[in-house]
Model the fold of this input.
Amino acid sequence: MSGIARSGRFARALHESAATFLSSLRFDWRLLQDDVKGSLAHVAMLKKSRIIPAGAAERISQGLQTILHEWEAGVLAPRPDWEDVHMNVEGRLQELIGEEAGYLHTARSRNDQVALDMHLYMLRQGGAIAAQCRELMMSLAALAQRTQEVIMPGYTHLQPAQPVRMAHHWLAYGSMFQRDYTRLMDWFERANVSPLGAGALAGTPYPTDPEYTRELLGLAHLYHNSLDAVSDRDYLLEFLGWASIFVVHVSRLAEELVLWSSREFQFIALGDAFSTGSSIMPQKKNPDVAELLRGKSGRIFGHLISLLTVMKGLPLAYNSDMQEDKEAIFDTVDTVQAILDILPPLLSDLTINPPRLQEAAVAQFSNATDLADRIAQEGVPFRQAHHRVGELVRLCVESGYQSFAEVPAEVWAQWAPAIPAAWIDELAPQQLADARQQSFATGKDSVARQLEEFTAWLNQLPEAGTV
Amino acid sequence: MSGIARSGRFARALHESAATFLSSLRFDWRLLQDDVKGSLAHVAMLKKSRIIPAGAAERISQGLQTILHEWEAGVLAPRPDWEDVHMNVEGRLQELIGEEAGYLHTARSRNDQVALDMHLYMLRQGGAIAAQCRELMMSLAALAQRTQEVIMPGYTHLQPAQPVRMAHHWLAYGSMFQRDYTRLMDWFERANVSPLGAGALAGTPYPTDPEYTRELLGLAHLYHNSLDAVSDRDYLLEFLGWASIFVVHVSRLAEELVLWSSREFQFIALGDAFSTGSSIMPQKKNPDVAELLRGKSGRIFGHLISLLTVMKGLPLAYNSDMQEDKEAIFDTVDTVQAILDILPPLLSDLTINPPRLQEAAVAQFSNATDLADRIAQEGVPFRQAHHRVGELVRLCVESGYQSFAEVPAEVWAQWAPAIPAAWIDELAPQQLADARQQSFATGKDSVARQLEEFTAWLNQLPEAGTV
Amino acid sequence: MSGIARSGRFARALHESAATFLSSLRFDWRLLQDDVKGSLAHVAMLKKSRIIPAGAAERISQGLQTILHEWEAGVLAPRPDWEDVHMNVEGRLQELIGEEAGYLHTARSRNDQVALDMHLYMLRQGGAIAAQCRELMMSLAALAQRTQEVIMPGYTHLQPAQPVRMAHHWLAYGSMFQRDYTRLMDWFERANVSPLGAGALAGTPYPTDPEYTRELLGLAHLYHNSLDAVSDRDYLLEFLGWASIFVVHVSRLAEELVLWSSREFQFIALGDAFSTGSSIMPQKKNPDVAELLRGKSGRIFGHLISLLTVMKGLPLAYNSDMQEDKEAIFDTVDTVQAILDILPPLLSDLTINPPRLQEAAVAQFSNATDLADRIAQEGVPFRQAHHRVGELVRLCVESGYQSFAEVPAEVWAQWAPAIPAAWIDELAPQQLADARQQSFATGKDSVARQLEEFTAWLNQLPEAGTV
Amino acid sequence: MSGIARSGRFARALHESAATFLSSLRFDWRLLQDDVKGSLAHVAMLKKSRIIPAGAAERISQGLQTILHEWEAGVLAPRPDWEDVHMNVEGRLQELIGEEAGYLHTARSRNDQVALDMHLYMLRQGGAIAAQCRELMMSLAALAQRTQEVIMPGYTHLQPAQPVRMAHHWLAYGSMFQRDYTRLMDWFERANVSPLGAGALAGTPYPTDPEYTRELLGLAHLYHNSLDAVSDRDYLLEFLGWASIFVVHVSRLAEELVLWSSREFQFIALGDAFSTGSSIMPQKKNPDVAELLRGKSGRIFGHLISLLTVMKGLPLAYNSDMQEDKEAIFDTVDTVQAILDILPPLLSDLTINPPRLQEAAVAQFSNATDLADRIAQEGVPFRQAHHRVGELVRLCVESGYQSFAEVPAEVWAQWAPAIPAAWIDELAPQQLADARQQSFATGKDSVARQLEEFTAWLNQLPEAGTV
Done:
């Protein structure tokens, strides 16, 4: 961002509507601490490299510290006539220490300055989001802990398929968010790069020391190429892609919360603290929060498309179109954090309805696969066994039986003389679940081990504030 | 939007993070006037239909008028503890007139209320945008007026193709925005529908008169179906689609402004009032405004995808996900209006460089097609003529000639004995342009007629404030 | 599209990977009939305007007719070495009539030729889609016809809100598709424009007659501006926007089909002819078709974003990026038509379960709003009545009653002495529905009138093949 | 589940339009080798675990090998009546070995089978893409190698900013593709997971050994959770996000190729083998390939949005919507590979125009920043120096001088007595570039070192076929 800086080059002032159009102050104020932090590192380097007078450097540092304190104390208000946060910092610095403030811009361009601010901001937020993700996974682990013995229907196509432990279902979301976590860590490493020293695009003729500022700022790497350093938005695009996958997971979970709390399912009840009523219908208890969680996906996909579109086809290096990155990113960060604020307490506040879940697991022939498997174990190829059981299901449905167990022994003997009725008894939901003993399956021991490993992994993650 | 209304149904208060998550006050405050206008019509109907006491209706009306005046005078501040604009109006009304305020919600739900507010808002903004579009087209017509005699290269593939009048080029944008205007008018008709009276989703058991409120509000139609009335977002999606095509046009125009003001093209200069400098490079005069105009396309495409995603797969009728429509729509309206604020003065402030344009029109064999046409007129099938001229271009390029006119007569006689050199003289840019006389072509009279018709059409459009 | 035509200008052949990259034959073959139709009109005009010899014109026409017949008879195969459909037509024509085929390209460019082909194609498909939309609405009207007396719960937030007639619910979709139809008609008018005669971008120096070809082709308008004519993709973008809203409607309907055919809802059963089984679970009857209908929305949104992205920031006039329009459009047309092929028979094949719907309508206090309304009719402001009923709901829930009707008279007398139990009896689902008598509401007469008007509107629409 | 398997459960056949709608054979045929490979591992495990008879297992293996050979030999044609690739393999196997083929489906579902096929396919393609990326970076390194001494203007806002080495510019793209490569490697690790054994969703009751099949297939990990294993599309979404960022890079590079080969820039010439002509304009040499490379971004963004939309809000586990993943993914893979096929030869075939680049680097005061820096070195705060130089630029522009060097000594002495004219001489483009000596800057040694490190990194990457 070259800002709206105007040198003596211009004979006329900026048109009022242009000034408004270009102004970024309404959204970039949140970068203040990152901007000051970056400037502190820059001025320290200028001093160390003897590029500016030591005294001026010290006064600039003190002025910047003052600004930071004013901001933290809430007494620094943005001034609209200074069109962005950077001009606000510069302007305030000049008020505080006078013309010497001008030294701060030595050997630095608005381009590398803004690029640095965004990196610092994103790393700060990325760390916070990682910690919040951990909290979310903790709440899923807790849900899994209390639902290990709850049997429910596992669904495909929203039709009961095979019984599963409810813990197994929660842990599926645990796996999704675990992947989100590892992708965020990979991103973090890639975002952890300093552009400071790239100047406008080509480096600077001063004897600066970009490695020194990088180290002062605690960043892991330096960009390899200064043109790239000022025009790279990959780490922002990757973050938006990250967030898009994350909200897909959230939307799937939210959909299930809406479904499961419906009158028709009644698998769970959302806490009163996370439900709302209706202005007109007194009986309503609406899953507004879950619906809005589901709907937030639209916003994030939109921001992703927004920045992809902005970047498409831009020649090197910096172009002002790139200023459009900020609002998309800031709203994404805010939205992700809001989602992560609300999901853990909402999940902890769920009421589970095990009898209803058990009943649903029994219904509708969810043991049919296992009956076919049982037949296959007698040496019949699975395809044929599958077809035979399908016919039995149709006979039951046509005769009004809701499960194999309901069929009277004499009817069964007539329909399926080769299938002992005792086999049916062995195909109760819990038995079916426990028969599945692969490491990732829904058997009792399998799920217990999955939970154990998940919890162990969670426990070794850094807590909030330590990333 | 059912709001966060809570009846006696709930034993516990809303979780703090849920309240924040659901609150819409930070963005829906702008609907205040529409909300009050809708409520005024509703209460007038309740009174006329004798559903509520006449005296209460009058006091409610007066209270609402007071709120509107307070809002217009800037003395009404949003209160965060009332989570949206509707609760703010209700709460303030109760402060003003007491418990009787409760009558206002009779025979109305938050669902039809919010749906109405959005219709009123969109029609208000749509009318303003139409008027701004007209201004933009006026400025293009003015540019065309002053560039009818300016010849420039017409481009395909960013390579000079055939000479065109610059007026013709501006009028191409005129055609695009003209289509935008007609699409907006079609949209306006479709958005001009009243949902008031649909209640939560099914109508209301009161003897209300939705036709009466529709007429009071000056809306053209009533929804056919109350379930649809509260869950329809088509007119918002269509508006976002409208805006997306509009910003495609803007981005194309902006791209040309950036290209044409580059040092390499130098076809135009942007006014100082619409250019910016660099914080570090004193010589820079940057087309920031044009770049940002180009980049704004991302934001709008994003909002379109956002609302499409939100609506995808939602069962009937209202779901809280739909609350996500507002920010996408509001930012789109703001962005379109900002673009339309800045484009007309920016275009009026352009400096055109006719000599440079003329020179570019001459260069690089832009008369080659016409030479082929000329040969074809002698009876040679066009495909062969085309190939022959292609060979001549290659000979010129290999020999270092930049145009046919540069080739010495004796060389030409050797290369192309069958092509009289005089033909070349007749193929100067202006002649080439004027030879194209179809109604939509670039000939002098054609362009003059296009401009005349465009202007006549513009002149019969309603001015601002009259749509 | 400038094609991969190579004049004598080039010393080297196209790189093999470039030829593959640029080739469009694998997808543009479907334009053959439109291309030939356009060429027939063009050659008729060339003859009439005496631009080419009459004899050549006639032989070209006959050759083109032959090609069309070959194509219709399925004996014309695309040849990959001719990289697109246009080169295939040209090449075949030359085989048929020799060098005279070269005259066809006189006064025409690939740019206006391809632009015309796409207009002809889109109008052809648009007409077919309109007719299919009518069929879909017919099947919804038929469903509404048979479900006028079926009472079901109307939902908001996927929670039962108020009872509605099922016909009312189907007619809500009728309204959505009716809007789609009118939007398609508006689009049709705007797409109905001829670019032929625009040449490469500037018109042509020949005395052509674009009005004549426009009329021959049955197109309504001529473009106003030739630069615009060859670079306009608005009608394609608008169509993609149209299709995106259409698939939102489809996805909502499909979601309800999936929900309603779940074991938990059991409101409907999909026909066996529209359900599938599982390779492993013999009992499964999966709503695959409905799920895939829901999922198709992604594809269409994607195509919309695709073409918006392509067009963003392109300078005038034609650029090869625009070639990317075709696959997005063709797949959208195919997908919309496939959806419209399958939805009407699928809907006609639904089994409705009225007892289950009625039962669901009774449950869960869906008469609570009306009880509050009833109380309000005694003069209590609605807000207070709403709160009072909310408390009663909570008492019921805490005491295990599923509806007000279940509460014993003595308990009710204690809880709500001011509310006569008789009121409750009057609040049965059908009564509640019938109490809603606004024109768009769910009352018996209202719905009957809605259906009547919808059917009358449908009956006056043109049938397939007549648009 | 892609199949349309039907057990005895169904009384009626699938509706013809439904069969067409659900069929995936037209696009999933390409999975054949992956499907067979997966089945070979599965049957080996069934045999080892003694789940099916050893003899049957051997005959199945031989049959599968036969199918693979038939496919490789091109003699296996897809049969449309078998609706997908999996049914084709099964059907063909049954033809080859009879009813025993039915054993293959023991302890496996279509869900884990298809999930595995996609993992195998993606890993295969991902490896190929990585190798192609390496080739692309090699060609950029080669370009950088030959342009280390070429000075050109570095641009911001498409305005000359500061002189840079052309090698530095190419290496900026090198950095982008290097990030792409590392992101692809991270993705590869995450995609490298086996779902086989998850069954339909819950595991299977057979004593299978998923670790054994994982190892046979050479996959790195096993999913942690079987529900997740069959419904996870994260690795596909992440790949689409990867490809979207990649095509942003490609579109930026392509935009510069288009710009630079324009008549106005003339920085480069595209090879004839990568340029096309016009069907009507014989002089045209169009950068079609570069334009199409730029336009391909739309397609990829579209596919990303498509799959995000599909996945949004789906409940666990498998739903048929997910079948929509395939076409989006396959076209993305094809497009990325086509781009990577064409870019390296295209870049190798560029003609660079150093004199023109040098001339452009001199023009338009691109040494202004350095003049301001020079003044600042005398102790003037940079902000003031910047303003002073801006005024000098304006004086020059107003007086018609194109560079400081053009200003006569006496005029300069009058305008800027404090600035020795000798300073100007020291500010020639090459000197300016070389003054920038940070590791990532444009100085001679800096760029040489960047190239060296880039090449060293490239040289240690695995070659094609070894990932």
In short: The domain at 16-106 of chain D is CATH 1.10.275.10 (Fumarase C; Chain B, domain 1). The longest strand of chain D covers residues 159-165. Chain D touches chain A through 127 residues (CB under 8 Å). The longest helix of chain D spans residues 110-146.
